Amino acid sequence: MGLTKQYLRYVPSGTFNVIASGDCNCIHVSLNGISGRYVAVGACEHVIIWDMRLGEKAQVLPGEDIVVSQIAASPSGNHIAVGYVDGNINVFELTNSDVVCVFAGHKSAVTCLQYDEQGHRLVSGAKDTEVILWDVVSETGIARFSGHKGVITSALFINGKNCIVSSSKDTFVKFWDIETKHCFKTLGGHQMEVWSAVLLKEERYLVTGSMDQSLRVWKLNWTSDSKDEEKLVRQLEIVKLEETDNIEESSVLQCHQVGTLVRSGKGRVVNLVTDPGQSILACHGTDSLLELFSFCSDEEAKIRMNKRVKKQRKKLTKLKETGEANVETTEVPELLKLSDEVKRLTLVKLNEKLKSVSLLLGTTGELRLGVTLANNTVELHSLKVSEGNEVQCLKQITQPGHKKEPRCVAISSDNLAILSASADSIKLWSRANQSCLRTIPMPRDRPCSICFAPGDRHALVGCADGTLLLIDVAAGRVLEPVPAHTGECSSVGLSPDMRGCYSGGSDKTVKLWSFELIPDQTGESKAKVLSLLHTRTLELEESVLAVKISPNNKFIAVALLDSTVKIFFLDTFKFYLSLYGHKLPVLCLDISYDSNIIVTGSADRNVKIWGMDFGDCHKSIFAHNDSVTALQFVPSTHYFFTASKDGKVKQWDADTYDNITTVYSHSGGCLSLSLGAGALHGASCGADGALRLLARSDGPLVLGDTDERDDGLATGEHHAPVPGLPGINIPTKKTIGAEKAADSMMECLSVGAEYKRELGSARGAPVQAPLLMAAYNCATPEDFLVETVKRIRSSDLEEALLLIPFSAACDLVKMLPKLLDRGDNAELFCRLAIFLLKVHHAPLVANQALLKHIIQIQAKATMRLNELRDMVGYNLHALHWLRRDVEAADAEQLFREATTERRAKDKRRRTRQAIKRPIVTVT
After folding, report:
1. For residue 630, what are the contacts with CB-CB under 8 A and spacing of at least 6?
2. Residue 857: helix, strand or coil by DSSP?
3. How far apart are CA 73 and CA 29, in angstroms?
4. What is the residue-averaged pLDDT of the chain?
5. What is the mean pLDDT of residues 244-263?
6. How many angstroms separate the CA atoms of 285 and 267, rounded?
């Protein structure tokens, strides 16, 4: 075996500048029992919980490489579910930010998440058109609902009926029964995509938003709630609603459109959100307008109806007296209309386009609105619902990030500070804690290039209008705007002797500048300030895209728009070499420390390595899947980093032409890259708005070694229904974790069988246990199997059982009776037995040798499950007794929902007034 070359590993060391990603929703969360103060948002691959009172990060739920697409908080406030663009769902515990469980079932980005009212189940929808129901307690999938033909936009629990309602871009809204795992109702009343849906007013109304300006309101009538004498009345009411509707008496659910709410905003509906109590509806589109609607209680709706009817009767009486109305005109009917049920609240006009909103209604009637905007901002607003006052902005978080995506970045020579520039501002950051130290408003057009001046107290910024800004970083102000070029100033950098700088622009010139100290023109201080003196100009035939002076101060290389790189002598500007071979313009270049190698990166996705002596191309590397935007050598080496619009930052060896490693990826294109002194640290910025840091570690990296990551990443293959059993379409998918679990189970069975054979052949003589069993401290194969199965992640167990061969499944069935006899882990092995019998039922039952084991499993599993049921029931009644004892001692009722009595009273009242109850009608 030949010698391998070792490199030092570069690792990601931080992500900042992102306050809230626009592609993820925001939610209110409770920390330490406090609500209305904390808002959780997605920030690239992390979830940040902002303290809206202090304007600081209260907590960060860390991710790895995958961007967050959806988040949901459990009703108990202990957990938060996070969906990612790869289809995985992580459930975090808020107290310690640990991952409780991982659900892998979707093949593409998660688009909606919701907990049920107890927080025990989770429903998710994704771009793969699937809706999956998860059990958070047992950490497994319950069911996969397939039927939609478009992206799932909403998935909601109907808690009172054990159902799920989902909406999709295929224009349909479907109702799914959790027990039977089938769709029992489909709404086809939409002509275009359904972008969002919410349930309101104790799950009695469904509101859907589409491409138009109308929100459709549907009334849900469950036939199981109706008594026999009430069914006829309901049929008559429905006929009044819509005479064209075909009424199915056998249908479990009758869903009818009872009206529309007209939006004030333009364009399609982006999102519909309701508060946990389902009384307030928030709607926003593609603009900056947030609309709020309040669904009144039954008593308030009746009062509003009586006022309206009284007013209409007075008006009708006046018209009859004046003769404008027919005397025989009938009375105004006392029918409840949608206008009586819903009232419009104050419109909220925000400063930027709205991306997401979260509602929280307090007990005092105060509505808290948490919103994220397109300009990387999180805001908290307050509104008194009863008084209808104007919305008050409580907090706005803008300082820790650029409002627009950063275009260029530079790191100081001492690796302590980072400078980033976007179209709105220039910010100075501390590398150690990634906090913003200075913010300078951008006085000119968008920035194109940036670098620190010698001493790191000043910086140079090239702008799109050709201006070269000289900035005092310490004071946080612009010292002087220098009109350097008539076109875009695409490149700026320091000369190797640190006495001056250079700039290149689209006006076909490269200009050399020298630093000088001049008296302060503003007269604010007597100290001299830094300025630039133009010394020389290099005229060229094409627009300049990138410039670099060789470290030996001998050559200047210029990348031109004609896809060539021209090299000139620096002292005389005499032509030296022309490097041609790229098919598209060169966007970046760099020269090695010894001035022997020049590397160019182009929009044709290639990186070419050239010799400076003859201009020959040493190697052409297809480096990225998109344009190479930034390139820089590691000082004193021939290693270099590249960044591209495909988002990846890679490290290369210019001597061996190897790709050393891919450090990390931006979720959008990577626009700029900068390495500090000694390449100990680096920084990059991307179209995802994130500034990312990389750091050199002491860990060695050997080419060819791959990181075996046990993080449950999907292999991309999805299980089809099991052959011969079309009803089995399990909610999970095959992952790396499931494959490793299957391998571990098969290895466990083979080691145990071999150990049994050795015991049988030894005839009572002591036999040393295998090393694997000894490592697990197991004395018998059964103990070894118990320890192996216990270490398998719950969400991977069923997939692992599908991956093992039938012979291994038979061996498991033979061992299950002994495992069920043990008593411990009975629930786990009952689940294992049920799934094996479900998948391999026919061959297992047909095998006479296994039939006796199956009969034993049936008896022992039933006994163990009865024991577990008795234990749970005993504990439950003991807790009830403790609660009653505490209530009696304290003379007050604890653990009681505030809405229980009101709901019971409303149900009794609706039963009494079933015949004469008014209903919602469309006028």
Report:
1. 588, 601, 641, 642, 643, 670, 671, 672, 673, 684
2. helix
3. 6
4. 86
5. 72
6. 6
